[in-house]
Description:
The complex is a heterodimer. Chain A is mainly α.
Amino acid sequence: MKIKSPKEFWAGLMFIAFGLFFLIVSMKSYQLGTAVRMGPGYFPAVLGGILAVLGLLTFFQGLTLEGPKVPKMHLRPIFFISLALILFGYLMKPLGFVIACVLLIVVSAFGGHEFRWKEVTLLSVLMVIFSVLVFVKGLTLPFPLWPAFLG
Amino acid sequence: MDASLISNLALGFGVAFEWVNLLYCLIGVILGTLIGVLPGIGPVATIAMLLPITFTLSPVAALIMLAGIYYGAQYGGSTSAILVNLPGESSSVVTCLDGYQMARQGRAGPALFTAAVGSFFAGCLATLVVAMFAPPLAEVALKFGPAEYFSLMVLGLVAAVVLAHGSLVKAIAMVILGLLLGLIGTDVNSGVLRFAFGVSELADGIGFVTVAMGVFGTAEIVTNLEMKDEREVFTGKVTHLWPTKEDFKRIWKPILRGTVLGSALGILPGGGALLASFGAYTLEKKISKYGHEFGKGAIEGVAAPEAANNAGAQTSFIPLLTLGIPSNAVMALMIGAMMIQGIAPGPQVMNEKPQLFWGMIASMWIGNAMLVILNLPLIGMWIKLLTVPYRILFPSILLFMSIGVFSLSNQPFDVLLMMMMGLLGYVFVKLECEAAPLMLGFILGPLMEENLRRAMLLSRGDPIVFLTKPISGTFLVLSVLLIVILALPSLRKKREEAFQE
């Protein structure tokens, strides 16, 4: 077995995995019902089945048709952007809006090609002021501004 | 044109000219131009970002602003396409071809002028098309039952597949995956919590804003960060905007053709600005007597697609306003905006909320007029923006997206979900699986299941009703035809060529 078109090959595997997941969970955990009175499992089971079949088709295309390689995954941006989002989400309530914003900007900026402390500091200050004025004061979104233990 | 149309438009303009609505229209088109100019953020992410905020506005103002963002982005997108050879917006991809060449020849001014005037003309005409075709279509749609709705959605999804790049099978698989993701959450009929695995935050399902920001916003930022920031901006060279007499002679026909084609393609479910601009460019290249100049700075190559993408952006509101069915990801977000305001999208909107319906249509014309002013005399301001490096832009974009997502339910979980959708979206990019069909499937998933259940209940489990009901049958036959045509080898090649250009 030789992979001729890696993009199709991996996409096929992904679709098969998703399809089987939805198919099996629907069959096992939810009532299927009948075509007249469909249960909660009916539609997802059918769709999951179709998805698995389409995945299989794509998988075989990956073995038969020539195609380009999967481009390289760049881990640096993925890592820093994801980390920035998690920090923002989970630190908003304990540490407040201001700190969460600064963290998001500084951490995500590490995901770029170059990191200049001066620039990032200035950007953080400006964005925090802007966001507090527009979102918290202007649009009155219910975010705590400062850490919970200070208030 | 009948009398009711005029009185309806008069009602609409009355609403649109209220100062609050004018203000939000202006905010919308400015934001739209801004994100259109800036590469790396599109109307989908912006509208998704602003959606939670619209809750505080009146329904009319909210929809007027969001619509302004969408067609404003079409104007702004052409600016960066012409000056930087970067499409600020996906529908401006073809404008890069000739627009950038014109800029290199020192004719950036006339190219910008042509883009703006073409867009304005198309916008005016397409607004009329919406006003004329929406009411009769809504009348027909009022008679639709669950079977018709189901089949129409099938047609819409098939059309979305047609528009996707690359493999047909992969695009269909993406639609199905989208439908499945849309089913996560509480099942309305049985109250059963599906695919939540004990995560209480999933009871209401995954918010489409979260999905859109993940697969379009976050994934796009990560993809952009892989590329080096290399931009060549023609800043000093935009001196004279006014085209020559010869230019005028050459552009008026392409603008007209682009408008007509764009309006028609925009109405199609799955259509919209992107398909319109590609279609218009290909058509113009074929029939223009300057066809050999295309790709080397032909002014027609700017005029036709720019007119078409704006016309398509406007007429893609028709399926939304008359059937309650989104034809693309932006329209799907508009449905979300309507639901936030407690309005069920569908044919009844026109009769029950005429101020909203006609006010929005009238605002499109006003918005287009504002855009011409924003884009021509103020062009210098937008050019300055183009010089802002991406390393400053992307953290800001990410911040706005996170604030928007967090504010949806004030829970960290939504931000986490956006991150995961971003990772998935990044994998999609690498495997050349297009996210747009997935998004459309995601929105339509629960609606389709609901209508399928109802239709099957009414027909006592006999699936043949989908074919025997005339309207529903027609939709399904059309869907099958579309797939068959696409699967034919000769056309498949053509489609690939069209996307290559």
